[in-house]
Amino acid sequence: MATTKPGERKLQILQTLATMLEQPKGEKITTAALAAKIEVSEAALYRHFASKAQMFEGLIDFIESSVFGLVNQITEQQEKGLHQAQAIALMLLNFAERNPGMTRVMIGDALINEDERLQLRMNQFVDRIELALKQALRIAASQGEANEAETALRANILTSFVLGRWQRFAKSRFQHKPGEDAAQQIALMLV
C-alpha cells in the first residue's frame, strides 16, 4: 500500500471532487461515489474533512484565492480602469472555461441540496466580483473614460453577463465556451 504525504490525500480528494463535477450530467455527488473514485473508504474521506460541506468549502477556497489573486494582478498591471474591468471580466470567463467543475460551484448548481452556507458564500463571492468591477470603473471615471454615475450600473451589467455566460456553459454541458466573442461584447458594454 502506497503512503501519501500529509495534505496529499486532502488535495487528491478535492481534485477528484472537482473532476466529478465536470461530468456533463451533473448528478449529485455522494461521499460513497467520491470514495469509490479515489479507491478509499468513506471513513478515509472523513479523516480529512469533517463533512461533504467542508470538501466544497475547500473548492470554494481554491476559487476565491485563484480569482481574487488574478484580480489583484490585473489591477496592479493595468493602469487604465476600463482595461482593468475588461481584463477582470475576461479572466472570469476564462477561469470558468479552464475549470468546468468549479463553474458548477460558482453558479451554485453543485451546491443544491448541500449546506446553505455554501451558497451564501458563493453569493458573497459574486458580490466581491461586482465590487472589483465597480472599483475598476471608478478608476476609469477618475481618468475621464467613464461616467461616475454609471459605475454601479455597468459593474452590475458586467457581473450579470459573466454569470449568464457561466450558466450557459454549465447548462450546455460545457459546449458553449464562456469566452467565445466575449471581448467584443464586453467592449460594447464599456463604451
Q: What does this protein structure show overall?
A:
- The chain is mostly helical and 191 residues long.
- 71% of the residues lie in helices and 0% in strands.
- The protein contains 9 helices and no strands.
- The longest helix has 27 residues, at 116-142.
In short:
With 191 residues, this protein is mainly α. It has helices at 8-21, 31-38, 42-48, 52-77, 81-98, 100-106, 116-142, 151-171, 182-189.
Separation of the first and last Cα atoms: 60 Å
Q: What radius of gyration results from the CA coordinates? A: 19 Å
Strand content: under 5%
Name the assembly state. Answer: single chain
Structural class: mainly alpha
How many individual β-strands?
Answer: 0
Q: Regions with pLDDT < 50 over 5+ consecutive residues?
A: none
Number of helices: 9
Largest sheet: none
Mean pLDDT: 93
Share in helix: over 70%
SSE sequence, one letter per element: HHHHHHHHH
Overall 3D shape? elongated
Keywords:
mainly alpha; 9 helices; 0% strand; elongated
Tell me the layout of helices and strands.
Layout: H1 8-21, H2 31-38, H3 42-48, H4 52-77, H5 81-98, H6 100-106, H7 116-142, H8 151-171, H9 182-189
Helix pairs in contact: 1-2, 1-4, 1-6, 4-5, 4-7, 5-6, 5-7, 5-8, 5-9, 6-8, 7-8
